[in-house]
């Protein structure tokens, strides 16, 4: 990537590459799933309510601190937030799997296709040609891990809650990978720089 294309890419996808901001969501998802395995009937309501309030507070604090970190280390841009791919393949796949999942819920009362719908939503960078090959590769690998895990658990009749754990772990790993990509594209770090 030459300097001009690197700057254009960073300007367009700056917020998407700030993967550390989303880490608390996926960590809380993991903790909630672990909590359901070990929660007793007596303490269930109180601990869950207290934990939920603490988690919301910590997520807000972490996102604020992460925002300050990114602003001081990498600079600041007017927000463009998330950009969706223009690929017809992506949107065809998304609508096909989404409609099929809702059909299965209402006709055969089977919710097993929801992991695929969620996976297709967050692997959208795979279908965006503007992303560097390394980003497309790690999103593709992450999607494959979740899809094959869900298929294996459906064939083996395993506990479906494990898929939520796998999704949270994979999304946390993708957030870290995006952060590392941002660090590799931004050279050198500039304190309080505005772009």
Commentary on this structure:
The radius of gyration is 19 Å and the shape is globular. It has 7 helices and no strands. With 195 residues, it is an all-alpha fold. The chain has one domain. Helix 6 runs antiparallel to helix 7.
Total domain units:
1
Question: How many helical stretches?
Answer: 7
Provide the helix percentage: over 70%
User: Biggest sheet, open or closed, and with what strands and sense?
Assistant: none
Output the helix-strand order: HHHHHHH
Strand content: under 5%
Low-pLDDT parts are none
Provide the residue-averaged pLDDT: 79
Question: What best-fitting shape do the alpha-carbon axes yield?
Answer: globular
Q: Structural class given helices, strands, pairing? A: mainly alpha
**Distance linking N and C termini:** 19 Å
| Number of beta-strand segments | 0
What gyration radius follows from the Cα positions, in whole Å? 19 Å
């Amino acid at each position: 990537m030459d300097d001009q294309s690197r700057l254009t890419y960073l300007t367009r996808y700056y917020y998407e590459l700030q993967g550390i901001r989303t880490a608390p969501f996926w960590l809380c998802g993991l903790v909630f799933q672990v909590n359901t395995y070990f929660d007793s009937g007596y303490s269930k309501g109180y601990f869950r309510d207290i934990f939920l309030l603490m988690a919301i507070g910590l997520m807000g604090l972490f996102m604020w601190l992460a925002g300050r970190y990114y602003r001081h280390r990498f600079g600041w841009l007017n927000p463009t937030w998330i950009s969706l791919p223009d690929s017809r393949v992506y949107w065809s796949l998304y609508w096909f799997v989404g409609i099929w999942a809702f059909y299965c819920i209402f006709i055969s009362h089977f919710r097993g296709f929801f992991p695929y719908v969620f996976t297709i939503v967050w692997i959208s960078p795979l279908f965006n040609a503007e992303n560097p090959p390394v980003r497309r590769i790690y999103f593709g690998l992450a999607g494959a891990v979740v899809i094959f895990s869900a298929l294996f658990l459906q064939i083996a009749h395993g506990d479906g809650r494990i898929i939520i754990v796998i999704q949270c772990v994979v999304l946390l790993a993708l957030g870290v990978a995006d952060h590392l990509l941002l660090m590799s594209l931004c050279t050198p770090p500039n304190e309080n720089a505005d772009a």
